[in-house]
Each structure stands twice: as structure tokens, then as C-alpha cells.
Design brief:
single chain, about 375 residues, alpha+beta, Uridine Diphospho-n-acetylenolpyruvylglucosamine Reductase, domain 2, Uridine Diphospho-n-acetylenolpyruvylglucosamine Reductase, domain 3, Uridine Diphospho-n-acetylenolpyruvylglucosamine Reductase, domain 1, 5-stranded antiparallel sheet, 4-stranded mixed sheet, 10 helices, about 20% strand, binds flavin-adenine dinucleotide
């Protein structure tokens, strides 16, 4: 049953909680890296884990819909007025031990955690340099880049379970971490209040598994290591070239990063896609089609590259061109970007067009990676 409390009543109750500040002027355009989205009933900024927990438990008890927000870098939010309270997680402490144990509050900026770890000579998350957003969101979709995932090093998370109100350290194994997925994503199961990582002392990176990065560092793909600081710099450099490091002055970075996940499809469908590419574009292109092991023991399945499929379906970087409010990034076909004047409906229209175009060309339905609030692609 929905509580009939008015926003002023709720605000009064929330104001009684320590380390909480309220704002009724903020929009999701202010809170997201896409700079898109309408206005929540209220924005509640929480400076400690107990503030987050108290706010969430109060709103849940009042049956007031809420959205947890970190850095807003994986959110597509509807235009207009939204019947929900935005709860922004802003606890920020990070501790790095010499033995490689790193604890970060959920609201810490993720890249600050990476930098602190690299400066302490710890290896394991250097390939995740430059991913925007908060530490607490990294397990939510098991963030990954350049051959590494947070699941490689995540030991446990301090979790507020919403149905019981219990706050406890939960082992990473209980989160069903998989490619861009955990049982926290889309489920509202709980709120991450802190994370704990086990990194490797000694100044060397994790084995390099991503060809482009390994080549940049003069290593083979087979798992050589390099000094963590060198790997961080190389990753940041590669990411900047693709518009994947947030820069307020560069509209190519007003995005949610990769907009679609790489599709995992049956081998037979991958073969059919390759045959279609061969027919349309010739042997040389078809023979170079990226096909990766699906991972997770998925038999008879392969992972394809969403960016490659979008490009081969005819959507070039920068599509649909100058003057459009939302365009593919001019640096990377997989990012949908707000050129400054867009609304969410513009983004949804382009997302649909690209998804449908790839499906018509190759029979593969791309699935968006970000979390959608109040709006859907279908
Ligand atoms: C330029 C750019 C590059 C990117 N590159 C990558 C990349 O290389 N790899 C990758 O994996 N992702 C990438 N992303 C996506 C995004 O940065 C990550 O998913 C990031 O972890 C989101 O963090 P956030 O704090 O911004 O989460 P938000 O966008 O604020 O939230 C995302 C979801 O997580 C939930 N959430 C947030 N915090 C918590 C919490 N403490 N507890 C429970 N739920 C929570 C929210 O409710 C929402 O459902 C990129 C995004 C951009 C804009």
C-alpha cells in the first residue's frame, strides 16, 4: 500500500536523520553523466552509511519509491516529474593496507580508489582506471574493462538488505557476479554501503589479457605483467581516445559509456551473422569479425562485439550527424551521447533505431547496459 505522505511530510522526517541534506531543485540532468532526466520528488544526500540505511529504511517503511544514485553514469532517466526520491550516496572513506586489502565507502569516487591503490603499488584494478561513478556501484553490474572485472578482486560488500533491514558483510560469491550483471542490478535487493577488495602488493599489474592494451605496453596478450602505474596511464590514454573518460567539455563523453552489452549468442547465430557480413562486405571483413569465448562455461555460445555490429549495420561514428540532439559518439560507435540540448526521448529514439537496425541486418537484438528509470526501449 502506498503511503499518502506528502513530500513536505517526508522531508520533515528525513531532516531528523543525521548527515542528510535535502534538495528539491535538483534534476536527473544534474545527477547523470548523460545530463538527461527530469525531476525527482526530492534529492537526499547521505554522508554516512548509517544515514543511507536510515533514509532507505524510512522511505521503504513509508512505501515511497526511491532510486539510489552514485555518480549517475549508468542511468537513463525519463523526462518530466518522477514519482521517486533520489538517494545520493556520499560516504567517501577509503583505506588501503600494505597487504593489499582495500576498503572503500560506497560513495567514494571509483577512480580515486584506483589511484590510491596504484599509488600504494597494489595490482588488480589498474585496468579499471577511468571508469566513472562510485565504488559502491562497481559490483552492481560487475564493472569491467580491458580484460579485468571487479569480480576478480572483490572479497565482500557491506550490504543493506532492503527486505529485512539487515546490514552485513556479504561475500562476493553471493552476488551472482557475471558479465555486466549481479543480483543487485535491476532487483532493488539491497544497497552497497562499502566494498572490500584484495589486491596484490609488489607494484605489478594483474596479467594483461586485452590485446590492444598489451600491445600498447609492449607485452604479449598471454598474461605478462607491467608496473601498475604504467598500465593505469595506458588505460587512461586508450579510454580518452574513445571518449570513455568523463570530460564536461567534451560532448562525446556525455554518455552512459557502452550503451549496449556485447551480445552472447548461439554459435549457429554467430555463423549466420558472419555469413551475412561476408555477403554484404566481403571475405576480409567477415574473417575479422570479433568472436570471443562467452565465459561462465556457456557451451555453444559466443560473445560478439556490439560496437562492431552497430558499425557493420551502417551506423558510423557520429551518426546521424551534425545538429542531431543525440548522436553516436564521434569517437566510439557504442556510446550514445547528448550533444547538449537533448531530452531523454531523443536518446530513446536513437537507441531504438540502432537496436532495430542491427536486428534487421543480423538478427541479433542488442540489450541496453544502463539501468532505465521511468522509460523503456520497447
Ligand atoms: C564515459 C563512461 C565510461 C564507462 N565505462 C565503463 C566501463 O569501462 N566498464 C563498465 O563496466 N562500465 C562503464 N561505464 C558505466 C558506469 O560508469 C558504471 O556502471 C559505474 O559503475 C556506475 O556507477 P555510478 O556510481 O555512476 O552508478 P549510477 O549510475 O549512479 O547507478 C547505476 C545503478 O546502480 C545502482 N547503484 C548505484 N550505487 C549503488 C549502491 N551503492 N548500492 C546499490 N545500488 C547502487 C543505481 O540505483 C542504479 O541502478 C561507463 C560510463 C561512462 C559514462
Amino acid at each position: 500500500m502506498t503511503d499518502s505522505s506528502t513530500t513536505p511530510d517526508i522531508a520533515a522526517r528525513l531532516r531528523e536523520i543525521d548527515d542528510v541534506t535535502l534538495d528539491d531543485t535538483v534534476t536527473f540532468a544534474d545527477l547523470t553523466t548523460l545530463h538527461l532526466g527530469g525531476k525527482p520528488r526530492l534529492t537526499v544526500r547521505c554522508g554516512t552509511d548509517s544515514a543511507v540505511a536510515e533514509v532507505v529504511m524510512l522511505l521503504d517503511a513509508l512505501a515511497v519509491p526511491l532510486l539510489i544514485v552514485g555518480g549517475g553514469s549508468n542511468l537513463v532517466v525519463a523526462d518530466g516529474d518522477l514519482d521517486l526520491v533520489a538517494v545520493v550516496v556520499e560516504n567517501t572513506e577509503v583505506t588501503v593496507s600494505g597487504h593489499g586489502l582495500v576498503r572503500a565507502d560506497a560513495g567514494a569516487v571509483w577512480d580515486d580508489v584506483v589511484l590510491a591503490s596504484v599509488e600504494a603499488g597494489l595490482g588488480g584494478i589498474e585496468c579499471l582506471s577511468g571508469i566513472p561513478g562510485s565504488a559502491g556501484a562497481t559490483p552492481v553490474q560487475n564493472v569491467g574493462a580491458y580484460g579485468a572485472e571487479i569480480s576478480d578482486v572483490l572479497v565482500q560488500v557491506l550490504l543493506l538488505e532492503r527486505d529485512t533491514g539487515e546490514m552485513a558483510w556479504v561475500p562476493a560469491a553471493d552476488l551472482d557476479l557475471a558479465y555486466r550483471y549481479s543480483n543487485l542490478k535491476f532487483t532493488g535487493r539491497g544497497i552497497v554501503l562499502a566494498i572490500e577488495l584484495q589486491l596484490h602488493p609488489g607494484g605489478q599489474s594483474a596479467p594483461l589479457r586485452y590485446g590492444e592494451l598489451a600491445r600498447r605496453l609492449g607485452a604479449t596478450e598471454g598474461g605478462e605483467r607491467r608496473p601498475v602505474a604504467d598500465v593505469r596511464e595506458a588505460v587512461l590514454d586508450l579510454r580518452r581516445g574513445k571518449g570513455m573518460v568523463v570530460d564536461a567539455d567534451d560532448h562525446d563523453t556525455w554518455s552512459a559509456g557502452s550503451f549496449f552489452t556485447n551480445p552472447i549468442v548461439p554459435t549457429t547465430l554467430a555463423d549466420a551473422v558472419q555469413a551475412e557480413v561476408r555477403a554484404r562486405r566481403g571475405d576480409e571483413d567477415a574473417d575479422r569479425m570479433p568472436r570471443f569465448a562467452a565465459g561462465g562455461g556457456a557451451e555453444g555460445q559466443v560473445k560478439l562485439s556490439a560496437a562492431w555490429l552497430i558499425d557493420r549495420a551502417g551506423y558510423d561514428k557520429g551518426y546521424p550527424g551534425d545538429g542531431a540532439p543525440v548522436r553516436l559518439s564521434t569517437k566510439h560507435t557504442l556510446a550514445l551521447t547528448n550533444r547538449g540540448q537533448a531530452v531523454t526521448n531523443d536518446l530513446v529514439a536513437l537507441a531504438r533505431e540502432v537496436r532495430d537496425g542491427v536486428r534487421d541486418a543480423f538478427g541479433v537484438t542488442l540489450v541496453p547496459e544502463p539501468v532505465w528509470i521511468g522509460v523503456a526501449i520497447d
